[in-house]
Amino acid sequence: MSENYVSTEARIQDACLKLSHLEKPNIAQIACKFGVPEHHLQVRASGWQSRLQRPVANKQLSEAKKLAVYLYLKRLDSIGTSVRLPMVTSCTNAILKCNHELGSPISSNNPPPTIGPTLTPCFLE
Description:
Elements: H1 3-21, H2 27-34, H3 38-45, H4 63-78, H5 85-103
Helix pairs in contact: 1-2, 1-3, 4-5
């Protein structure tokens, strides 16, 4: 995150604290006083999280899923099987598919997430 975003975020936090102490807050006036965008202050005052607090949107593999892939690779290594990139990709996609089946039904409108070949090499480092 840029230094500017972090400083703006700190000012928004201060403004939200000030808003919480007021009986009838004027968001536009407080935003001007703290030098923050009015819309940002309005959504944060209504309960939305900042980008720093929200979970990453495009992260498909949680730490538990990554651990499952690493354990699979370790098991393959312990039995003497050399690991190839397609094996890692199919293992990861199978984990994502299983997790998707638990959460919601698979249909043509709701396919399970997959990873591409660009993410696979990071497991072999």
